[in-house]
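DATA SHEET
Item: assembly model
Revision: 1
Owner: S.N.
Input lines:
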Amino acid sequence: MSSMTADSEMIASVVGGVRERFLERLGDRCLEIETLMLAIDEQGLQQRLIDEIAGRAHKTAGVAPTLGFEDLGKVALDVEGRLSKPLDAGGWADCRQRIETLLDEMELALDTAL
Amino acid sequence: MKILAVDDDPDFLTLFESTLTRLGYANVTFVTSGAEALELLSNTQVPFDCFILDIQMPEMNGIELCEEIRAIPEYEETPIVMNTILADRAHIDQAFAAGATDYLTKPIDEIEINTRLGVLHTLVRERLRTQHAINHGGADVFATPSYRFADQIPMRRVAGTIEYLALENYLKTLGVFRALSTKAVGFHVLNGQQLFDEAGPSIFSEVMIDVATCISDCLKTSSRMISYAGKGDFVCLLSRVEALDAFELGDTLRISIAEFGHIYDELNIHLPMVSVGPAVGCKALHMAAPTRILDEAILNARSAARHFTGFSQSMDR
């Protein structure tokens, strides 16, 4: 076996393992974000809730493209960027829509993988 | 090169480890929090040569961790690379101000990592060689850090200063809009070579730190980034909208430096005579190589030195 083949197999094995774990967490992450959005709807725009959603978007954006989910990575990056700026009620409405898109992308990634 | 990588995302760390191993960086330690990193540093016998820190981490973020690491004397000059996704743009300024040397973007880009770590690896090797020379060169000769005239002396203890390499890296991180809203101002110590020759490297480095302190004090803006480029040259990055009169700044600076007069008298050395050049704004032609504005700002300061009338009087002291 050439060293290049061995390298490729090693990479595929590492990426495969991380991808599996990432997808396992993605389902939970989806539900967590939905819960956080409901909390904002009920309790109003609280920074700690926004930070929680931004943190989940951040983690998704950091690895999704490397695992083959480029669109998911882009949307997650966009959501994190929007949430890192000060938000008013109008800004939240736009942001909420984008988070819905992120949830759609997460579900699509899960559907594709399963 | 012994690297410490800190990131709270285990998925990212696994992928990052795989990439670094493939690129030949086998001596890497991974931890998942700032607290864990600091704990490790306090118990490590062989120091780390380079740090790679995620910016967004819970409890202690990467910028706070960067400040903590810089506060450890052993790691005052160790390269610190911030690892971030593009949405962290707003944090990059803070990271450089906290002492970061460079930054990497997430998701993982193998070519980018290889290029940026390659530069730092060369820097680390050079420093290790210097350290080796110090350790084997005799205690009298190398009792204090020894700099050549052209060397970039660390200015860590002066507010608003960053390493020259970090300043160059910072400029490269700016997008078109932010680059176009930045300007560089150069400062040149006219009698730098003379000061170096008559006072020696150790006192010369202290004099340059005094000059940096005065520059920092004279530029009241909090967003300033000042760096020492070696050879008596300083350069400062400012926002383009800030009004700055080079002649006025030069006068203020010279008054500020004159306050050190009695100390220099005791040391029997001349006062550093500093010229200030007109600011250089980043233009479209600089976009391919934005660090050119640093070179141009320094050239402007050197040109301004030719018209500096106070120089000859100082030399006669």
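QC remark: The first strand of chain B starts at residue 3 and ends at 6.
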